[in-house]
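Researcher: I'm comparing several assemblies side by side, and this is the next one on my list. It has 228 residues spread over two chains. Same procedure as the others: predict the full complex and return the structure.
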Amino acid sequence: QSALTQPRSVSGSPGQSVTISCAGTSSDVGGYNYVSWYQQYPGKAPKVMIHGVSERPSGVPDRFSGSKSGNTASLTISGLQSEDEADYYCCSFAGSHIYVFGTGTTVTVL
Amino acid sequence: EVQLVESGGGLVQPGGSLRLSCAASGFTLRSYWMSWVRQAPGKGLEWVANIKEDESEKYYVDSVKGRFTISRDNAKNSLYLQMNSLRAEDTAIYYCARYGISATYDYWGQGTLVTVSS
């Protein structure tokens, strides 16, 4: 049950695109299409931004998109906005009703 | 409106016990798996436990097996986490979360802080 690996931080200017990677193994990210992404502001609860690898819940802006290739999932934020500055976590089903989160990435809008 | 409100956190000595509660409203609790997720100060999220709608299945992260017990009372719209033999490394904000489609935690409470220290 090792945490999925994410970059500690990514940054971009307003309007640019940033991509956050989430590296796992064939036992979690690579083995199931159950990857979700969460946004968390300081002192607040997480909020789901993507589920099922690439599905966007109602109300989430379409500048957020998810994908997966092999054992690595990715979250892309296009047209970066100041309100996107937050921590982001991936999460994957890992079989046998076990779940594993990523190490977390801080997005900074320059 | 879906709401999850945790309570029961506080300061406890190593080896002590604490019971967390989560009051659910705005949806039919008995129709959903539920979960506890924790976050140590300044650290990332960690899945702790899941419980099936009828309490017939329960799953835990290895580090809490044998010490923590997740339970629920659908009639009272409540989820619980009994924590025994607490350790310093259990210090965290504990979130109650609803387990929705595609293995997603679609609603979260505001969290309750548990501090294990002498």
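Model: For your comparison table: The longest strand of chain A covers residues 86-93.
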